[in-house]
Amino acid sequence: MLKIVRISAFALIAVLLVGWGMVWLRGGGMKLGLDDLGLAIPGGVLMGGPFTLVNTAGETVTEETFRGRWMLVYFGFTYCPDVCPTELQTISSALDRLGPQARQVVPVFITVDPERDTPAALAEYVKLFDERLVGLTGSKEQIAAAAKSYRVYYARAKAKDTADYLMDHSSFIYLIGPDGGFRALFRHGMAAQEMADSLKSRLAPGG
Fold first, then answer.
1. Quick check: helix, strand or coil at residue 42?
2. What one-character DSSP code corresponds to residue 163?
3. Cβ-contact 134, 107 below 8 angstroms
4. Which backbone phi and psi does 108 adopt, to 5 degrees?
């Protein structure tokens, strides 16, 4: 299953690069950053879809649980030393900048390390960033299925000078619409204000 996830992730990156080239050519040679691609994915790229996972209360949730609201979905793990905390803080800051409109958005953190990230562990972790953040875990099979639908790459990696391990994983933030359809892909390192501005252009005025 991880091999399939890895192939899907690499395929996504290839599609994005091709799309970037098309945008560059259509722009008469004007250079555009990956953020431009991240906010307008080339047609035909399918991401997101049905999933069955477990929240921090131990309750089973599916994609239907969030229907009617926008979702910001990020895959990571609680032992992540830098990238995950940074991205989750960016999500939180972007939502703060939305004001009342933030009520339309549910930030979702899906672990790629279900062996260690139990519902209880996730509950402690997500509250460090934002009380609005929803933590989801599940069985290895459930996580693999969710990752595959979002074209997320992840794999266990041995940490240096320790018997513990880390997780290699792709780092994108997915914007899912109220109807469950994929809307945008935000790149790693995007500024909170840039993300907030993109969200504002999509959300209903006044929240």
1. coil
2. S
3. yes
4. -125, 130
Model confidence over 105-144: pLDDT tens digits?
A: 999 999 999 999 999 999 999 999 999 999 999 999 999 9
Domain ranges of the chain: 2-200
Question: 107: helix, coil or strand?
Answer: strand
Which region holds residue 62: left if phi is over 0, alpha if psi is between -120 and 50, else beta?
A: beta
Q: Up-side HSE of residue 182: CA atoms within 13 Å toward CB?
A: 22
Element (H, E) at 83: helix 83-98
pTM (predicted TM-score): 0.80
Q: Which CATH number fits domain 2-200: 3.40.50.280, 3.40.30.10, 2.40.40.20, 3.40.50.2300?
A: 3.40.30.10
Q: How many CB atoms lie within 10 A of CB 82?
A: 7
Spatial separation of the C-alpha atoms in residues 115 and 30, rounded to whole Å: 46
Q: What is the DSSP-derived secondary structure letter of residue 102?
A: G
Compare 197 and 44 and report the one with higher pLDDT: 197
